[in-house]
Write a structure and sequence with these properties.
Layout lengths: L6 E6 L3 H10 L6 E7 L6 H8 L6 E2 L15 E4 L6 H10 L3 E4 L7 H13 L4 E3 L7 H12 L5 E9 L19 H4 L2 H11 L5 E7 L11 E7 L5 E7 L4 E8 L2 E5 L10 E3 L4 E2 L6 H14 L8 H20 L3 E2 L1
Parallel strand pairs: 1-2, 1-4, 2-3, 4-5, 5-6, 7-10
Antiparallel strand pairs: 7-11, 8-9, 8-15, 9-10, 11-12, 12-13, 13-14
This protein binds NADPH dihydro-nicotinamide-adenine-dinucleotide phosphate.
Length: about 325
């Protein structure tokens, strides 16, 4: 048999996550490779071309990105820009006939998410959201436990993700139009985790928000939100830019289990009330995610994290925002 071609991936937005995590991980993947770049910063281009051997024909800027349609080297466009621009670039990529990998959080509103989903469907390209945790082995074990219920029904879930930003200057994570605020940026980790840990979809949310650092005045710094599930389980979620948080725990009828840390790039590990240890996996998370997503395209199977999964988080996130504004419980 002829060996299968590896898929060519173009990264859109050469910031921190593309530079430090995705591009290095694309050197470890078996089913895809870094073939192209789309950037608004010409000064970044020589270094990327030299480091990753990217030919001139695979270098784009935001204005000519639609011309990817004529480039057979590129199979997948991975959108890694500020969140407020995910819809814009995902739509251009899908209309160019390229498969779309979109970073988390998927977009600003459920309606933007739906536009991405519809555009991908219309162009018959795959769409997946960059929820790397759902590919991580210990997290997958937790997801299986939602079905198997080894400790009986879940009573409550604690899901907390945040970091101390200490930022004193304005940047896109402080800009409401670009998707700023800890709730969008980090809050989707507890939100997504509450869903995959319970195996249920929440039916109601209550929430409150506090902001100390004036940089985050327009977007909110710390958010507490409780999700109620049909089974009666409750997820107590917390996210913030003012403290380091990285805990996921399920308290069940007959015991408990947890992953601490649960959303780090490595060393995701955990334990259970009866002494089972969930050891860290040595695999590179982003390489595993991108290989899984590439294989779904190659084999024409459903991706692990389809657009609908990313959209559902934004549906709930919008309910969290409403609960904060209206200061009352919101039904989903
Ligand atoms: P950065 O600010 O470091 O990089 C974003 C890049 O987007 C910029 O460098 C720039 O690239 C491009 N860009 C295009 N338009 C704008 C604009 N108006 N303002 C600022 N940048 C712009 O952000 P991150 O890399 O940290 O985050 C990017 C995305 O990745 C976000 O959606 C974030 O949520 C997600 N992310 C996911 C992580 C995960 O673990 N899954 C971890 C970290 C981030 P250029 O100069 O090339 O045009």
């Amino acid at each position: 048999a002829t060996p299968r071609r590896r898929l060519g991936v173009a990264l859109v937005g050469l910031g921190y996550y593309s530079r430090d995590l995705l591009a290095p991980a694309l050197q470890l993947t078996q089913h895809c490779y870094l073939a192209g770049i789309v950037t608004g910063s010409p000064d970044k281009i020589p270094h990327w071309q030299a480091t990753y051997n990217i030919p001139e024909r695979n270098v784009y800027h935001y204005g000519n990105m639609h011309e990817l349609a004529n480039n057979p080297d590129i199979d997948v466009v991975y959108v890694v820009t500020p969140t407020g621009l995910h819809q814009h670039f995902s739509v251009i990529a899908a209309n160019a006939g390229k498969h779309v990998w979109c970073e988390k959080p998927m977009a600003m509103t459920a309606s933007e998410c739906q536009t991405i989903i519809d555009t991908c469907r219309k162009n018959k390209v795959q769409l997946t959201v960059g929820y790397r945790m759902q590919h991580e082995p210990n997290t997958r074990r937790l997801m299986a436990m939602a079905r198997e219920k080894p400790y009986g029904n879940i009573r409550d879930i604690i899901a907390e993700a945040g970091y101390r930003s200490g930022s004193t200057s304005h940047h896109w994570r402080a800009d409401p139009k670009l998707g700023g605020g800890a709730l969008y940026d980090m809050g989707v980790y507890p939100l997504n985790a509450a869903r995959y840990t319970s195996g249920e979809e929440p039916i109601a949310v209550s929430a409150r928000q506090e902001t100390q650092n004036p940089v985050y005045a327009q977007v909110g710094e710390t958010t507490w939100f409780d999700l109620e599930f049909p089974s009666g389980a409750i997820a107590k979620c917390l996210t913030g830019y003012d403290r380091n948080l990285n805990t996921l725990r399920a308290n069940c009828e007959k015991g408990w289990y947890e992953l601490v840390p649960f959303q780090s790039y490595s060393n995701v590990q955990g334990r259970t009330s009866d002494g089972i240890t969930l050891k860290p996996s040595p695999e590179n998370q982003q390489a595993r995610q991108m290989d899984n997503d590439a294989l779904a395209i190659i084999n024409n199977t459903a991706p692990l994290v389809p657009g609908e999964n990313g959209k559902q988080d934004i549906v709930i996130l919008e309910a969290v925002l409403k609960a904060i504004t209206e200061k009352k419980k919101v039904r989903i």
